[in-house]
Amino acid sequence: MKNVILQKIIANVEKNKELILNVERTIWKNPEIGYKEWKTSNYLKGVFEQLGYEVKTLEDIPGVIADIDTGKPGPRIAIVAELDSLLCPEHPEADPETGAVHACGHHAQSAYLAGCAAAFAEPGALDGLCGSVRFMGVPAEETIDLEFRNSLIEKGIIHYVAGKVEFLYRGLFDDVDLVLFTHVLPNEEKLFAIDEGSDGCITKHFEYCGKAAHAGFAPHEGINSLYAATLGIQACNSLRETFEEKDYIRFHPVIMEGGVAANAIPAVTKLDTYVRASTFNKMIEVNKKINRALSAAAAAMGANVLIHDIPGNMPLNNDKQLSKLCVDTVTEIFGENNISFRPWNCGTSDLGDISCLMPTIHPYASGAVGTGHGSDYQLTDPIRACVNTAKMLCGMTVKMLENDGALGKKIITEYKPVFHSREEYFRAIDAIKMQKKTVIYNEDGTVTLDYTNE
């Protein structure tokens, strides 16, 4: 590794290793789910202030932002971390009151974020660089606790369930040019991994509305919402052979409520699901098919269905030049054969929404074992997961900001966005929103299905 500036920033990360490890353990022990990460935000605010940063926080939602500027014009690079945990009450280290636990590894992101901030705050760390770096701790990546998030939307506190989308809406990415990020991947043998990207999704809640009746002596007087729901699931399952493998479509409904007593025909059955696909247009196309099938099933039973569609995540496409830079940086710092290449990921992330507007990358770090989101998940090697990741992200940042930002400017110039403005992006995702009953029973005995926003 001959690059003197790179060597210096890597040494700065190593110097702050204990800070990184302390942040990882502290946040692991204090998990909080999306839009409730107040302790986490306050803790990170204190860490950044001790490093000499002026920290911006948001009064109504959690999150931390800190900037460091070289004083020379150039790209602004955002290094992003997610603050929220999961709910997994069966995990042995879950919070006994809330069931929250970082079985997703997001706590490792806050640790690398602190490490990057510490490295760039060291004396002389910005010498030879241009532009600036923004450190962002963002809430609410996991799409859970939707009742609470919808209540925040109804109160006007937030506008979108996903934290990065909410930050985007508030203009907190407006002056950012590139975004760097890393997520821990369980059971990864090499130090790092990378793929082309991941699915986007539409988040769906739907309720089949029937009519209650005594299940024994008068079932004929009822309309069984649970039967309508299972018919709807079967109708959607029958669509699966129309899905092409190249589109990576996923549909996986769960019944949240399906009756209250065994001797009563259930009047309401509630379900949650996502519709996932690898492109925005395919998400929209498949969601229409799903809504048609759900609505037709309701009509077949003489029931109705309330469909509530809200924007989930956009598909994530890792910028090819940033991916190459990631591979080159890992090779330069850690040696050859320390990064693996993975297939398309059918999970989703709100980082995909950012990747539609600016060059973005979502590689993976090793250091965890068990099942992601599962009760056996553990971060077993925080050096690999947190310290090495901070070195890699700092190294990529240096390479884009040295030489008058030549590489960073090249990546920005050659990037081809999915949407050409924030306004165009929000028009597209807002068009997904729908909340209505989709079966209309006409006076002449015919039935109309109204399952789109068109």
Question: Care to give the gist of this entry?
Answer:
The protein has about 450 residues and is α+β, with helices and mostly antiparallel strands. Helices cover about 35% and strands about 25% of the residues. It is built from 13 helices and 24 strands.
The counted number of beta strands is 24
Helix content: 25-40%
Task: Please summarize the sheet with the most strands.
Answer: 8 strands, mixed
β-sheet strand percentage: 15-25%
Rg result: 24 Å
Mean pLDDT: 96
Low-confidence stretches: none
- What's the N-to-C terminus distance? 57 Å
Helix and strand content put the structural class at alpha+beta
Gross morphology? elongated
If helices are DSSP runs of H or I spanning 4 or more residues, what is the number of helices? 13
